[in-house]
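Entry for the shared binder. Reason: the reviewer on the internal report wants the predicted structure included alongside the sequence.
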Amino acid sequence: MTRKIFIEGMSCQHCVKHVKDALEELDGIKSAKVSLEDKLAEIELSHDVDNEKIKAAIEDAGYEVTDIQ
């Protein structure tokens, strides 16, 4: 199971790492690929994770989630 998360506010590779680390700390997320250019994170889930938990983790890291698909 995968999800795409559209993110605003990333400006460098440090931001990308910060988002990736925040996502991979959540229980249920096996891996995360974050693209600065596409303003997108693609996550692989081991089990269902509530979108609000995903959004909160990214927002706590200092970035804005614009959509989750």
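Summary line for the report: The chain has a mean pLDDT of 98.
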